[in-house]
Write a structure and sequence with these properties.
Blueprint: H1 9-16, H2 41-51, E1 55-59, E2 65-70, H3 71-84, H4 93-96, E3 104-105, H5 110-118, E4 124-128, E5 134-139, H6 140-149
Parallel strand pairs: 3-4
Antiparallel strand pairs: 1-2, 4-5
Helix pairs in contact: 5-6
C-alpha cells in the first residue's frame, strides 16, 4: 500500500504555530561552581562532597570554557594514584578533566536538550551564549523538572 502525504502549505503553517517549548535558560543552573585547570583535584573532590554536586565547568583565566570535571574524572585520579602509589593531592584538574566538551546553546529549548541527553551518556551540559561564554549548566534533572511543569497541550 502506498501512502501519499496530502500536506499543504496551510498544514505547515498550522505546525509552525504550535506552542514552542521553553528555553533551556529557564531551567539551567546559573550560580555555578567552576574550577581552574591549575586547581588540585583533591580540592575538587572536597567541593563536590561539600556542595553535593557531581561535576562542574573548568574555566581559564579569561573565563573561557576549557573543560569539565566530573566525579568520574576524580575516580580516575583515585585509581591512578593507587596504581602509581602517589597521593591524590598530586593531580591537577587539567590532567584529568574532559577537554572535548559538548555544550548547549542558549537558544535551544528543553526538547532539544532532552534529545541531546538521550544521545549521549553525558549528565550535564554547559550552556553557552552567543559570545561563547558559559552562562549556566543544565543537567538531566533540570530537564525532568521542565517536563514536570510543561503543559500537557505543549506535548
Amino acid at each position: 500500500m502506498n501512502f501519499t502525504s496530502k500536506n499543504t502549505a496551510n498544514d505547515k503553517d498550522k505546525l509552525a504555530s504550535v506552542k514552542s517549548y521553553p528555553s533551556v535558560t529557564r531551567y539551567m543552573a546559573t550560580n555555578l561552581i567552576t574550577f581552574s585547570p591549575e586547581q588540585a583535584v583533591s580540592e575538587v573532590i572536597q567541593i563536590f562532597l561539600e556542595k553535593k554536586i557531581s561535576g562542574a565547568p573548568v574555566l581559564n583565566e579569561n573565563q573561557e570554557l576549557v573543560g569539565i570535571i566530573s566525579e568520574k574524572d576524580c575516580l580516575r585520579v583515585m585509581i591512578g594514584s593507587a596504581y602509581h602509589n602517589q597521593p591524590i593531592s598530586m593531580g591537577k584538574v587539567a590532567d584529568f578533566m574532559t577537554r572535548n566538551v559538548q555544550t548547549i546553546s542558549e537558544d535551544q529549548d528543553v526538547l532539544d536538550v532532552a534529545q541531546a541527553f538521550l544521545n549521549t551518556p553525558i549528565r550535564r551540559f554547559p550552556v553557552i551564549n552567543k559570545q561563547g561564554k558559559v552562562i549556566g549548566q543544565v543537567s538531566r534533572r533540570d530537564i525532568l523538572r521542565a517536563a514536570d511543569v510543561i503543559e500537557s497541550t505543549t506535548w
